Amino acid sequence: MSLAASPACRKNKTVNSNSNGGSNVSNGGDPELARRQAQSLVETGKELYKNDQDEQAVETFKQAINQDPNNAEAHLRLGMSYAALDKKTEADEEYKKAIDLFKKRIQADSKTETRFYLGEAHTFLHRDEEAVRSYRQSNQAEARRRGSVLPVRNG
């Protein structure tokens, strides 16, 4: 998995899923079912967003968050959809929620993709130093996973 940062619009970029704990009671109290349903909605929302159906994507990501409020990717992608609709305030709120959830997820597990998504959320908020730090940590974790070593630079 090669992960690279790009500050440009990510309209055509695919970001894989991740879901954190949390559930919605509408699923008979089954948190795993809620997470699966939420992730299915995220996948649907990604397709809507990719096809420039941004208003429908917003509604779909909101449904996903209703199913699993701790789905960091749903918040990130809802922010992206709001941004596509020029709703900066709403977008920034969702990016901040995504950052908080990704940070919590990193504490629970240190998956490479989680650090990458955290970098994405920081990028959207123009927090360049935090984004670079997250991207570097993601790349270093991926290199360790593969058994190779990346040079580490300070600064």
Q: What are the main properties of this structure?
A:
Serine Threonine Protein Phosphatase 5, Tetratricopeptide repeat; 65% helix; mainly alpha; single chain; 155 residues
Q: Proportion of β residues?
A: under 5%
Range of helix content: 55-70%
CATH topology: Serine Threonine Protein Phosphatase 5, Tetratricopeptide repeat
Shape: globular
Oligomer: single chain
Distance between the termini: 25 Å
In the CATH hierarchy, what is the superfamily?
Tetratricopeptide repeat domain
Task: Give the domain tally.
Answer: 1
- CATH C-level class is Mainly Alpha
Main sheet? none
Give me the count of strands: 0
Helical/strand content category: mainly alpha
* Helix and strand run: HHHHHH
- CATH-level-2 architecture: Alpha Horseshoe
Backbone CA Rg = 15 Å
Structure description:
- This protein has 6 helices and no strands.
- By secondary structure, it is mainly α.
- The protein has one domain: Serine Threonine Protein Phosphatase 5, Tetratricopeptide repeat.
- α1 packs antiparallel against α2, α3 packs antiparallel against α4 and α5 packs antiparallel against α6.
- The two termini are about 25 Å apart.
- The N terminus is likely disordered.
